């Protein structure tokens, strides 16, 4: 399966007529500052300076820097989540009445993450930002993942179970988590800022070729899901609805 996901990290601009909306200006400025500098180094002062608003506007519209980050995540990660779910639904519809092949599910999971993570210069700043956020969770970002990301995760968990019914719930959750970890790691090591994977492999791994990255990830992740079941403890029935 090769989807039509071809865009990169969106260059968000304010819709016509919303340029004077202070909240929208703050979100756009914060998105750029977080992607450029990372959450820890980004300052409220820099964000408000770019947005052309008072420092107090952050608290007024968002309550805190953490809540602002959660709002920015909602803005920039929506294309990823929607593309993944759309690809999964398409794979399931094409395979009816059977479940989709394992590789189809895995590609629906990884292709949007690979293709949509590049900025116009080929770097992957959003990947680095997500790594920072996962290493430093806050109440705001936790709520964001629970409400905006986890529903899509459960759709994939259910799809994996339908295709691999011999695996227990714990095995599927573990392997899904390993899959996301593998994707994040290879995206970080394929960033032009480091070229780490390309350097380590003596240029054997072309980390500028998204199709090569996707093919390797699909093969690796699929192999992990096909490994013998490891969980041996009794489990409740898997919810399929």
Please state the structural category.
mainly alpha
How many distinct domains?
2
β-strand number: 0
Q: What separation lies between the terminal Cα atoms?
A: 25 Å
CATH hierarchy, class of the largest domain: Mainly Alpha
CATH superfamily of the largest domain: Tetracycline Repressor, domain 2
Distinct helical segment count: 10
CATH architecture of the largest domain: Orthogonal Bundle
Shape summary: globular
Integer average pLDDT? 86
Helix-strand sequence: HHHHHHHHHH
Q: What fraction of the residues are assigned to beta strands by DSSP?
A: under 5%
Biggest sheet, in brief?
none
Helix content estimate? 55-70%
Write up this protein.
With 241 residues, the protein is mostly helical. It has ten helices and no strands. The protein is globular, with a radius of gyration of 20 Å.
Write the layout of secondary structure elements.
Elements lengths: L21 H16 L6 H8 L4 H6 L3 H31 L6 H14 L9 H11 L3 H25 L5 H21 L6 H5 L9 H16 L16
Q: Main attributes?
A:
241 residues; mainly alpha; Arc Repressor Mutant, subunit A; Tetracycline Repressor, domain 2; 63% helix; globular; disordered N terminus
Outline:
By secondary structure, the chain is mainly α. The protein has helices at residues 22-37, 44-51, 56-61, 65-95, 102-115, 125-135, 139-163, 169-189, 196-200, 210-225. The protein folds into two domains: 20-60, Homeodomain-like (Arc Repressor Mutant, subunit A), CATH 1.10.10; 76-224, Orthogonal Bundle (Tetracycline Repressor, domain 2), CATH 1.10.357.10.
